[in-house]
Amino acid sequence: MKTFQQDVVLVKTIWSRYVRRCFLSVNYSQPLSYRQSQIQQFQSLVSPSLWSRRRFTGHWPRIHTTESMLHIVILLSMVILSFAGCGPCQYDLVTGPYGVSDDAITASTTHRDCPIVKARFSSSRSWCPLYSGVGHFLQVEFRSVSMLKAIQTKGREDYSQWVSLYSVNISMDGITWTSLSNSTGDVQVFPGNSDRNTVVTNELEGTVIAKYIRVISVSMHSHGSMRLEVQGCPYSEISSTCHRWGAKLGSTGDVLSILLDTDASNQGLCGLKCYRQPECDSFLLDVKSDQCRLLKGSVNGSQITVDLDGVWYFVKI
């Protein structure tokens, strides 16, 4: 049986981080239909004694205690989280409404005949490095931390110059960089252009979140000239329901592998860290110590495990 204190913690973690934002994204013109799977999910969050008095007849039982009110707040929070929609994430992040200033676009080197401002898709030319060869890069600092969905490139319009293969590095601070890798763990090499003006789009797999991006030439034709666009959206624009979490009270046999122990000041940040780990499907947040423990559903013999019997944790829904 859940305790009053546990309900308070749950209200804080669910309500304070998500519900106020979700009110803005709910489509109230559509009626709410209570599907059986969602009723079961709500039931797991509400004390059995209160649930047994509730019938979906349009009438609610009279509320006599603060504890009962908290249960209903939890229920309403989960209703909103379950029905709020997930907006699009396919905006141009270099040029356009979410685009950057010219100062936010930099490069390893730049030739005087094709300055950095020509790196935009709207340019009739392109950026090109000072020297021929590979390893040159274009770098963009986005206006805010963003989720990246695709990279688009074009060659140089006035000369037969383009990047035919490239790799991608991302960063949150512009100092520490991480290469995008393929399924084998090697640096992923993306196909680039084969002519001057055809747009080549490479969609990014998994969750790629960054403040900075570098597109690095691996192979080129004549000279490594490039025009660049990156598609995605500012992370602040993503509805919290794009990655939803349900609170679960652990029971006997709930033993999960620990992927990573880190820190997070709230449930939303801990959920984001889990969301960015491909293998993470649940997490445990200690609100007293700000410890965020990322968990994996399957038990791996080489990893440390945690017994969640009687412990609240969050799972993807």
From TrEMBL:
Which InterPro entries does its entry note?
Answer: FA58C (IPR000421), Galactose-bd-like_sf (IPR008979)
Check the record and name the Pfam families matching this protein: F5_F8_type_C
Query: Which residue stretches, if any, does this entry annotate as coiled coil?
Result: none
Q: Which CDD domains does this one have?
A: FA58C (cd00057)
Residue stretches making up the F5/8 type C domain: 86-233
Record's superkingdom? Eukaryota
The name on file for this protein is Neurexin-4
Q: Which source organism does the UniProt entry give?
A: Mizuhopecten yessoensis
Q: What is the lineage of its organism?
A: Eukaryota, Metazoa, Spiralia, Lophotrochozoa, Mollusca
